[in-house]
Design goal:
With about 325 residues, this protein is mainly β. It contains one helix and 28 strands.
Amino acid sequence: MKTKILFALIVLFSLQPGFADTAPTLYAVMIQNQNAILHGNNVALGLHRYDGDTTWTHLGWRTAKCFAGDVHPQDNSVICLACGNGVMKSANGGEEWRITTDWRMTEVLDVAFDPIDPSAIYSATAYGVWMSPDGGRFWQYSGKGIVKSFIQTLCCDISTSGRLFAGGEGGLYLTENRADRWSEISNQAAILDIYQNPKFPDKWIAGSRDHGVMLSSDNGKTWTFAEGPISDKTIYAVAMNMNNANIMAAAGFHTGIYISKDNGTTWEQKQVPNSRDFHALIFDPRHQERLWVGTLGQGVIYSDDLGESWHHAGLSGGEIWSFTWDHR
């Protein structure tokens, strides 16, 4: 969900002068706070920006029901959020927000800018896929070819504008014409998260219900399910290391964190103290082996040694639903 195409622009900007002086910024979406106290001064729900150590800055409404976010690939001040009441958009770095959708769009579960043509925005909803061709001014239903309408995740191909995968109850779908029509790729399992490695764009990974992860090494033309102990797990979050194509991670409810160091051939389960449930993963583009993890109840943690040790990074009590980076 939610963590996908943004690394591509980090790679591109890293070639520009001055990039080394400005690190990308991590954002997290929190859907619930298990430490909330009625009428208390609780940590706000919705979008948070990481400021270092265990400090986060909240952006937007304190009680927003949000599931995922994406940052404009050419303008960090423009952010979209997938929310229960539609797609929210900010044009000034999260200081002010407006809803871009109407009554037809609710339960928006994911949102993504086209990395090549960001005037195109795609959203996954409980009622199918919607697309805006003009930066969110107008939205149109774009779910032709999708058999089961509950779509949970989207991922745009960083190398081809208008090409993206969608996952949901009906399985995995592909469009190559800006969501005008979709083709079924696999219906063997519900797909819960999709990710493309921005530095090695031929490599894709998808998390599924009860079937572990699906992998592709030919830019999504063919997919296979990973074997071994992960093969029967429900995986809500997947990620790949952009510095090492062989390293990937996957996690879900009661799974621990699964790490593969050999391109998904074998998987090792890593345990996290006081936490078994996870909904968000993302590798850090600036740290070789740092993996950020969004827990369901313990906030944000990270590991710099692929799960051998863990460090708390704030948002205590938070159920973290997704991560994304901007493009500094």
